[in-house]
Amino acid sequence: MTLPSPGQRVLMAGNNAIAQGAYEAGVYFASGYPGTPSTEILEVISEYPEIRAQWGTNEKVAFDEAMGVAMSGKRALVSMKYVGLNVAADSFMVFPFAGTVGGFVVISADDPGMYSSQNEQDNRYFARLAQVPMIEPSDPQEAKDFVRLAFELSEKFSTPVMYRTSMRVSHSKGMVTVGERSEVPAKTFVKDIPNWVVPVFAKGLRAKLDAKLARISEYVETYPYNRVEEGSSKVGVITSGASYTYAKEILPDATVLKLAITYPLPKQTLIDFCARFDQVYVIEELEPFIEEQLRFWGVTNIIGKDRFPHTGEFSPDVVAKAVFDEEPVQDFSGEFDLIVRPPQLCPGCPHRGAFLALRKSGALVNGDIGCYTLGCLPPLSANHTTFCMGASIGNAFGFGVGGTDKVVAIIGDSTFVHGGIQPLIDVVYNGGNTTVMILDNRTTGMTGHQEHPATGMTLQGKEAPRLDLVKLVKAIGVEHVQVANPFDQKEMYSAVKEALEYQGPSVIMTNQPCIFARGEKGRKYTPFVVLEDKCTKCGACQRIGCPGVLPGEVPAIDEVACTGCSLCEQACKFGAIVRKGDA
Amino acid sequence: MSSVTNLILSGVGGQGVLLASEVLALVAAEEKAEVKQTEVHGVAQRGGSVVSHLRFGDKVYSPTVRTGTADILVAFERLEAVRYGHYLKPGGLMLVNDLEVMPGQVGDFKPYPAGIMEFLTGKGFKILEVPATAKAKELGNPRVASLIILGALSVHLDLSREAWDTVIGRRIPPKLVDINMKAFQTGVEIGTGIKVSASA
Q: Are A115 and A136 contained in the same domain?
C-alpha cells in the first residue's frame, strides 16, 4: 500500500480513513480482533510504521492491552465489530469509573442489515450503559477527522470514548483530504490507588463518573461538530451517522441538526431545535436511541419509529418511504426467476472434508463462528446450531449432559484461540464426554485471512512463537487427541467414529490449510476431470457441495476452480473422476 | 440532484466487479468534486452475487443509489443484470456482458433461466450487449474482460480519456498495463460501434 501524503485529496474507504485518522491523531498503539465490517481498520493501521498494531486473541484481551497503554499515558485505540464489544464489555463497563491518562478510543463497527453478522444490535446503547461519550461519523472524511476529535474528547475529560461506525460508513469510499501526523506528548501514570483500584473504591468513583458525565453533557451543548444546517423548508431533521447522508438526499431543503456526538445528547440544543418546528423527523438507523431520550424529556412533536423501521439498514429509499410514502421500485423477482447465488464453501476448502465425515457419522454438530457456519447448507447440512464466538464447545457439553448421543463441537483455529480454550478446560474439569473438532486451516478465514497466535505470524508481519494447538489441548487434559486429514475421507471418518465411541473428552484437529492461507496462494494444482464414458450420472459428486463440480445432468469439473483436493474422486464409486493427465 | 451520475455495477464474485468499480471511482475522482462508492459483499461471496453503487458529481451525500434512478447499469453477467435491473431509471442504459454463470446449487437443481435479454428489452431499457468475455479470450487473457466493459462504459460517461489512461496506468500492475489498455480500447470500439437497441 502507498500511504497518501499530507494535503492530498484521495479516494478512501471509511475504514482506511479511520486508519489514516489514527495515524494523524498520533496513535501509539492499536489492537483488536477481526470482524466484519471493522477488519480493515487494523489491517490498514498496521501499514503505518509509527503505530504498533496487533491482533489480540480476542476483543477483551485487545481492549485490556490498549487500556493499559492508555493508562500508561499514550494514545491507544481498540477496534472490533459490534459483537466484539459484547466480549470486551466487562472492561468497557468498568474502565470509565477510573478514566484514562492517555487518550483511549473504542471503535465499534455496527452492521445494520446483518450483511455479515449473527444478530442486529444497536451499540449506541453500550455508550449509555457505560456512561462513555460516543462519536459517529457519516462519511469517509468524517471517519478520518472524528478519530482526532475522539482522542481530544477522551483526554479533555479523562474518559474512554466510543467511536461508532457502521457497515455503510466503513465500507463506502469517498474523497478525503489527508493531513499530517501530530505526535502527542506522553502523559504519566500516577500511582493513585483510590482512582485505579476500582472495586475497592467503586462507590466514590461512581459519584465522580456521574459528575464527569454532567460536565460532558454541558460541553456537548456547544460542541461545534454538532451542527445545524439551515434549510429553506419548514421541516426539521435530527440525524447522525450514515442516516445523515440519506436525509440530505431525500429532504435537501430541511433544516438539519447533525449530531457528531450522540451520547450524551445535547439536551437543551435538541429541545430548542424541536421548538422551532411543527414537526421534526428523527432519522436514526436501528433503535429509537435519540427519539427515546427526546420523549423522556417531554418533546412530542417528533416523527421517529412510528414511521421509520427499527430493523434493517437505512437507504435513501427507506427514508423516502417513511417521509413521503414513496415506494421503492420492486425488483423483478415477481416476474422473473432470479435464482439466488448462495454463499458456499470454496472449491478446495478443507472444511468440506470435515463436514462430509460428520454428515456420514450422523452426529449432532454444534457450530461456531467462521466460514464453516456454511456447513449448515445443503447438500452438507452438517452444522446444526450456531450462535456466537466460542459457544460451540459449551453447547456440545450441554447437549451431552442433556442426554443427546453423538455430539460434536466444531470450531476454527482462530475462534478456538479467541473463545474455545476456556470451554475446553471446563469440559475436562466437569467430566464432559464431548468431542471437539478444531478446524485448523491456519488462518482467520471468513474475515479475509488474518494471522493469529497459532499461525506464527503477527499483524505487522513479524514471526511469532507458533501456538501448538495439539500440545495445548493435551496440556488442558484432553487425552484422546487425533490429527486427521479432511481430504482423506477414510482417515477423517474413522477419526470421527473413534472420537464418538471414546468415553471422555476428545479432540480432532484437521490439518489442511485454507486455500488462501499464507503460503497457499499461487500454488499450482492439477485439477480432476470427469470421464463421461464411466459416469453413471448418480450425482454423488454433486452432493459434496463443491462449486467446482458443476451442476448438470452429466457433472463436469471447473478446471480453473478445482484445487485437486480429491473429495469428488473419493465420492465417485465408478472411477469416473480422475486427476487430469491420468485418464 | 441532477448533477449527480448514478451507476450500478453488478456481477458474480471473482469477475472483477470490485476492481472495475475501484478504477471507475478513481477516474471519477480525477475529474469530479465528489465520488461515493459502496458495495455489498458478505460471507464467502466467491461465486455470490456482487453489486457496487457508484455516484459522482458536484455534491454527493448517500453512497447508495435509489431504485429506479441509476443512469447506467453495468452487468458483468446476464442474470445479475435482471437481479439489479430495478435500480435503473426508466429507459436507462444497460451494458450487459455476454456471459452466463450458473449459480451454485443448494437443494434441487435449477437450470439457468432462459429469455433474459428478451425480458430486459421488454422492460424498455436501452441495451448494449458487450461481448467482453469473448473478446478478452481473443486478447489472450480472460481477466481483462472488466477493462473491456469499462471501455464500453466510458463512451457513455462524461470522463476524459486522459483520466482513464492515468488511472489504468497507476492502478494496474506494470506488466499488465499494455494488455489492459488494449482491452479498454477494444471496449471503447464496442461502445461506439454496436448500435444501441431501444425497444418496447
A: yes
Chain B CB contacts of A174 below 8 Å: 34-37, 60, 63
Distance from CA of B197 to the nearest CA of A (A): 21
Domain boundary residue among A175, A201, A220?
A: A220
Residues A214 and A235 in one domain: no
Residue A489 and residue A390 in one domain: yes
**A262 shares a domain with A357:** no
Q: Which of B106, B110, B117, B166 to mutate to test the interface with A (most CBs of A within 10 A)?
A: B106
Which of A115, A315, A547 faces B64 most closely, judged by CB atoms?
A315
**For residue B71, what is the domain's CATH number?**
3.40.920.10
Interface membership of A342 toward B (CB under 8 Å): yes
Q: Are A212 and A157 in contact (CB under 8 A)?
A: yes
Please, what sign has the CA dihedral across residues A283, A289, A292, A295? negative
pLDDT tier at B197, thresholds 50, 70, 90: very low
Grid coordinates representing A145? 477527522
Query: Are residues A271 and A247 both part of a single domain?
Result: yes
Q: How far apart are CA B118 and CA B110, in angstroms?
A: 20
Q: Which has the closest alpha carbon to A467: A438, A488, A498?
A: A438
Supply the CATH number for residue A540's domain. 3.30.70
Q: Is there a domain that residue B109 lies in? A: no
pLDDT surpasses 60 at B43: no
Residue A424 located in a structural domain: yes
* ipTM over cut 0.90: yes
Which residues, at least 6 apart from A205, have a Cβ–Cβ distance to it below 8 Å?
A: A97, A98, A195, A198
Residues of chain A with pLDDT under 50: none
pLDDT at B194: 56
> Is residue B44 over pLDDT 50?
no
Q: What is the pLDDT of residues B130-156, one digit of tens each?
A: 999 999 999 999 889 999 999 999 999
Asked whether residue A189 falls in the same domain as residue A120, the answer is yes
- Please give the grid coordinates belonging to residue B60: 454527493
When divided into structural domains, chain A yields a total of 4
Instruction: Give the domain range for residue A391.
Output: 350-510
Are A53 and A152 members of one domain?
yes
Amino acid at B119: F
Q: What percent of chain A lies above the pLDDT cut of 90? A: 95
User: B163 with B23: CB under 8 angstroms?
Assistant: no
Whole-angstrom Cα distance, residue A131 to residue A149? 18
User: Residue A235: how many CA atoms within 13 Å on its side-chain side?
Assistant: 16
The range of the structural domain enclosing residue B13 comes to 5-100+115-193
pLDDT number for residue B200: 33
Residue B167 belongs to some domain of the structure: yes
- Which B-chain residues 166-195 have CB contacts (< 8 A) with chain A? none
Q: What is the pLDDT of residues B20-39, one digit of tens each?
A: 999 999 999 999 999 999 99
